[in-house]
Description:
Cytochrome_c-type_DH, Cyt_c-like_dom_sf, elongated, transmembrane helix, electron transfer activity, heme binding
Amino acid sequence: MEPAKQHLGASLSGLVRVLLLLTALLVLVVAIVLTRYYGPGPAADPARAAADEARQGPPLPGSYHRPATPAPDTATIPRTAAGRQIRYGRALVAHTARYLGPQGSVAQLSNGMNCQNCHLDAGTKGFANNYLAVAATYPKLRARSATVVTMEQRVNGCLERSLNGRALADSSREMRAIVAYLNWLGQGIPKGQKVYGTGLTPLAYLPRATDPVIGKAVFATKCQSCHGPEGQGQLLADGREYQYPPLWGPHSYNDGAGLYRISNLARYVKAAMPFGATFDHPQLTDAQAWDVAAFVNSQPRPHLQTPHDWPDISKKPVDHPFGPYADAFSERQHKYGPYQPIADARPGSSAAN
Length: 353
């Protein structure tokens, strides 16, 4: 009997080992299946993510179906001395470089860009830095300086920041003409009132940080044909002004400009870029607008010393790219996001900007 018992024991032991092996295999198969269907996906391929986003669009029609408030018809500018001043102001906005650029006929005080490069159609295109409410809202208190800013100071702020240049004298013929044009555009708009289409379009924050790497692919696909592979823009044949402005480098806006905030640039390109886009027929998805703005504003550009900006640091926008801040979020998060946690930490902040 003893040999039979030994044989039986060996058989049972072998069976147990087989059962344990089968159980282990079953557990492994179940783990693989559960991971495949319920576990985290494979690590994202940055190149694939960039290519996928760059190919997207145009998006479905947006919810902005109202037409932007139209500007007055230039044909109604009177044939008087006052009318000539208004027309000169419009020309200064549309062709700033001809008068004030590096080869300007009046002065050489700006970088060669035109005001119109950022304020499209001489400041009249809807949600493309539209000027129609300027006369109605200035002078006004601005948090950036914590002072009441006049229309002349606002114009000079653009010259010094967006055009990386020098200020005009308030009494100069050019400043008086620009102000006359802005007042003409705002005729009939009650003081303190904005009209539909002014400023920039609303744009919800991304649920993640903006991504300059993805934005580079979006730029190559959507923007490079006009602004050039190095963002240098395209000059007109006479070489005196830009048909398509430089987006970075020594001839672009400096880091004190409003468009250096990623949210402002994203809102602008969403409503106005690429060429032919409008706020109600955009060509970029929200993510493309945010990411290409992050890419453009991660490139080198002139620096402007701004020691008097934001004296009350608690009033800095969530995406102001330079500290110090009144919160504990990093400078990088303030520049690239995600912005919603910063907004949530501020009483009264909204989910969109």
